[in-house]
Amino acid sequence: MILLAHLLFGAAIGSIVKNMPLAIFLAFLSHYFLDIIPHAEYNIENIEKKQWRRTLPQFLGVSLDFLTGVLFILIFSNSSASSGQAIIYVCAFFAIIPDGLYLLNLMLESKVLQNHSNLHQKKIHFLKHKKIPMFWRVFSQMMVIAISIFLLRS
Question: With a threshold of 0.85, does the pTM exceed it?
Answer without folding.
Answer: yes
